[in-house]
Every structure is written in structure tokens, then in C-alpha cells.
Q: What sequence folds into this?
């Protein structure tokens, strides 16, 4: 995730970690993830602009993020979303995978 953020946005977070939340959901937490221009917007009390920009970033880069996680995990992503807390400079990437076939 860090290298993909660097590639897509010019810089990556300074800290990142990923955790499964149950069997089918992956949560990637990235700290100090805002771009310098986004940080400037926060300082100008324009957090909603950061949220709006991040929404467009997500739409523009969705396939790259989904493809990368599918390749790493080896499972089909059926839902992807991103959330940003501009004040904390934290970004979460959320992936929901197709359920594994049940073994009976």
C-alpha cells in the first residue's frame, strides 16, 4: 500500500499496517498520509476539500488498488472504499472479499 500510494500520489504514509477484520474484510491503516497541499488545506480549515479530493483520488485509482490487493491476497475484491480523517492525517483503505467456498 505504501509503495502504491507513493506511485499514485507522489508520497506515501510514514506508517502503515493492515489487519483482517473477520474472514472477508481487510483494513489498511495509513498514518501521516496527506499530501503537502492537503495538509495546507487542513490548516486553512478546508477539510471538506480534502475529503472531496480523496473521493476523486479513490475513483481515479480504484482499479490499481484493487488489483494490487487481489494479487497479494489471492482473493477477489467485491467492494472497496477509502476513508480519510484530515485532522489526524490518517487514511483507511477497506477491502471486502468474496466469501471463500464452504467446505462440506
A:
Amino acid at each position: 500500500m505504501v509503495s502504491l500510494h507513493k506511485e499514485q500520489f507522489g508520497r506515501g504514509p510514514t506508517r502503515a499496517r493492515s489487519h483482517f477484520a473477520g474472514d472477508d474484510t481487510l483494513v489498511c491503516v495509513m498514518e501521516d498520509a496527506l499530501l503537502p497541499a492537503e495538509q495546507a488545506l487542513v490548516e486553512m480549515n478546508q477539510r471538506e476539500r480534502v475529503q472531496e479530493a480523496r473521493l476523486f483520488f479513490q475513483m481515479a485509482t480504484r482499479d490499481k488498488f484493487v488489483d494490487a490487493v487481489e494479487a497479494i491476497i489471492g482473493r477477489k475484491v467485491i467492494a472497496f472504499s477509502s476513508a480519510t480523517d484530515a485532522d489526524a492525517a490518517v487514511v483507511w483503505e477497506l477491502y471486502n472479499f468474496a466469501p471463500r467456498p464452504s467446505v462440506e
Remarks:
- The helical segments are 2-9, 36-43, 47-73.
- The chain has one domain: 2-97.
